[in-house]
Design goal:
Layout: E1 5-10, H1 15-26, E2 30-35, H2 43-50, H3 66-69, H4 78-87, E3 96-98, E4 103-105, H5 109-116
Parallel strand pairs: 1-2
Antiparallel strand pairs: 1-3, 3-4
Length: 157
């Protein structure tokens, strides 16, 4: 079976990021780790990472540079916010965990577990069953669709 892979973006050695990294690796996910303090994102990479998501999800409001940066005044101008984040990468909220199609920002293990389909509660790295997230909304049994367009008999033509 091919191991699951994800990208993990962090900024320096922060305890919460290290805890999340260890949690993901213990679940058997292969991480490609990038420390933004050592290897900062380029403007193109930041645009690709943000995609069509709300830019404010990527802003670290607890950063000591937040008040000085002026991000709050330009939060509605996506390109200006991205330029500020590129200049001061400690303003990027971390960790960012990116799988093939999905992204999670922050230390919420429950959200990361759902995205990567790993078990958040027992921490032993067991993968969730494939049935997770595929439950039916109603309790009605699934039935074959009725054919509402009955064929006309040759006598009625």
């Amino acid at each position: 079976m091919v191991s699951k892979r994800a990208k993990f973006f962090m900024f320096g050695k922060e305890d919460r990021c290290e805890e999340v990294r260890k949690f993901i690796e213990d679940a058997g996910i292969l991480l490609s780790i990038r420390d933004l303090k050592i290897d900062p994102l380029t403007l193109t990479e930041m645009h690709t990472l943000v995609g069509y998501l709300f830019i404010e999800h990527f802003v670290n409001k607890t950063s000591p540079y937040y008040a000085k940066s002026g991000v709050e005044e330009v939060i509605n101008d996506r390109n200006k916010v991205i330029e500020i984040l590129i200049k001061e990468q400690s303003l990027i909220k971390v960790p960012i965990v990116q799988s093939a199609r999905l992204i999670t920002i922050g230390c919420d293990k429950e959200k990361i577990s759902n995205m990567l389909r790993i078990d958040a509660h027992n921490g032993n790295g067991e993968h969730m069953s494939d049935a997770t997230g595929n439950t039916r909304i109603s309790n009605r049994p699934i039935t074959k669709p009725r054919n509402i367009h009955k064929k006309r008999s040759s006598a009625s033509k």
